[in-house]
Amino acid sequence: MAQSESDELLLGQYSSDSHFWRNCLPRLQYHNPSVVMTVKPRRGVSAPVQLSIFYTNPDSTAPSRDEPSSSLAAAIPGSKPAPDERVVVVDMKNRQEQEILSDLIRTTKARLLQPTAEEVAEMKEMELKRQQDGRNAQLGLAATARRKREEELVRLARGIATKLKEAA
Predict the structure, then answer these.
(1) Hey, how many other C-beta atoms are within 10 angstroms of the C-beta on 116?
(2) Residues 91, 99: Cα–Cα separation, whole Å
(3) Residues 70/87, Cβ–Cβ less than 8 Å
(4) DSSP of 61-118
(5) Which residues touch 70 (CB under 8 Å, ≥6 apart)?
(6) CA dist., res. 54 & res. 73, Å (int)
(7) Domain boundaries, the chain
(8) Which residue, 108, 93, 105, is CA-closest to 42?
(9) End-to-end alpha carbon distance in the chain
(10) Whether pTM exceeds 0.70
(11) What are the tens digits of pLDDT across the range 89-148?
């Protein structure tokens, strides 16, 4: 666990940025492979919890910066955009990941992709498989418990038989 995350847990704060990066960023990267996304960790609890979106003018001839342009990055004090970039900041503090994602979509004027019929069928199939796996796990646990119970009864019966032989 990173130091800033443990500090937040000690202070009882909701770590919305970590949830967003863990749950939403992989989906964003998957559906936007041409967009470079970079995550910079915050420097302690007092640092702002923000999502900075750097936009580069596509016609710009300015030299490239060390950091990829058109990147998503957690704002760090002192992080300055290049001369040909503009920055939009989304506040993430004490907000749920869906709220952050909604702000990101609204701010960037992104459009949501609806799943195709094939993807919907695949999702339903995966959900059915997950449910079947859960049922199979329950059956396996019940069989294991039954086997252990039978082994215990056999062990007890052998112990009783041994004591009867010794008493005779």
Answers:
(1) 9
(2) 10
(3) no
(4) -SPPPSSPSS-EEE--TT----TTEEEEEEE-TT--HHHHHHHHHHHHT--PPPPPHH
(5) 35, 36, 54, 55, 56
(6) 8
(7) 3-113, 115-168
(8) 93
(9) 64
(10) no
(11) 888 877 888 888 888 888 888 888 888 999 999 999 999 999 999 999 999 999 999 999
Q: How many residues does the chain have?
A: 168
Place of tokens 């702002």: 48
Residue 17 has pLDDT above 90, yes or no: no
Look-up of token digits 């001369």: 83
pLDDT digits (tens, 9 = 90+) for 28-87: 888 877 777 777 766 666 777 777 777 776 665 544 444 444 444 444 444 677 777 777
The pair of three-digit structure tokens given for residue 69, joined into one six-digit string: 């342009």
Q: What are the DSSP calls for 12-42, one per residue?
A: T---HHHHHHHHTHHHHHHH-TTS-------
